[in-house]
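Is this the right way to post structure tokens for a design question? Let me know if I should format differently. Anyway, here goes:
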């Protein structure tokens, strides 16, 4: 009874077991709503799973590998580019440049596609450039905020240990914020999956799950659309879990910090 009251009360701390029960109950409730929904535009679970099996026979697995490889490349390049730019904000000369790049997140891809098409030599490069841009403008914004929010006391502490300024940057900004860099990566990596359908629709030479999704949506095969979307969701959740696992491996101290705060 007390657990039920805590779940419905503001600012209460609940146990991990209660969280598991709560998540399981809500998932079951959503599944029942999906199962008994009378909306004609929402295919039934059995139709979706039947479409998933059919799409898998038609090559959904191979298309997922193609899209996952593309997204992995985009995340790697975006991470490298964004981290370098964010760390460079410790130098005053680069702060206006990074600030300007962060403002580009408001731009639409419609006007930029032609620009990236001129830069790319293949369809794969075009898709990669579009994904890298889409993720980087948000990634660099988040990381620049992380760097800017580092307390001045941490820099002063490093200087009292007779570290040079570049050593201070390495210890305080780069190594000291690794756990937050993983968290920003985790938050922005999902952007690649959101943009995947658009970029694979622009260049369909390599196929991909986004191109397959557009084809099914064009012919109004809703069960197939839901099957592909659920597959992307599962793969995206696995990616999110993987990044979180890497954060725990490389930054085991992060969890201890959160518990103390």
């Amino acid at each position: 009874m007390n657990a039920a009251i805590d779940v419905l009360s503001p600012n209460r701390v609940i146990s991990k077991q209660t969280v598991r029960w709560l998540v399981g109950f809500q998932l079951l409730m959503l599944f029942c709503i999906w199962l008994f929904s009378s909306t004609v535009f929402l295919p039934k679970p059995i139709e979706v799973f039947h479409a998933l099996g059919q799409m898998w026979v038609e090559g959904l697995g191979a298309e997922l590998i193609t899209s996952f490889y593309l997204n992995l490349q985009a995340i790697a390049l975006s991470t490298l580019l964004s981290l370098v730019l964010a760390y460079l904000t410790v130098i005053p000369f680069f702060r206006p440049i990074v600030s300007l790049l962060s403002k580009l997140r408001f731009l639409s891809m419609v006007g930029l596609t032609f620009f990236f098409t001129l830069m790319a030599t293949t369809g794969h490069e075009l898709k990669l450039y579009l994904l890298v841009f889409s993720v980087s403008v948000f990634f660099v914004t988040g990381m620049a905020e992380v760097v800017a929010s580092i307390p001045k006391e941490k820099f002063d502490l490093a200087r009292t240990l007779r570290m040079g300024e570049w050593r201070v940057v390495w210890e305080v900004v780069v190594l000291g914020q690794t756990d937050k860099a993983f968290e920003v990566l985790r938050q922005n990596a999902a952007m690649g999956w959101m943009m995947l359908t658009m970029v694979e629709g622009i260049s369909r030479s390599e196929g991909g799950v986004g191109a397959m999704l557009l084809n099914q949506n064009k012919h109004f095969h809703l069960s197939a659309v839901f099957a592909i979307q659920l597959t992307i969701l599962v793969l995206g959740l696995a990616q999110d879990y993987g990044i979180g696992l890497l954060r725990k491996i490389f930054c085991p101290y992060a969890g201890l910090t959160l518990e103390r705060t």
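Format looks fine. Someone answered above. Worth noting: DSSP finds 14 helices and no strands in the chain. Residues 222-250 form the longest helix (29 residues).
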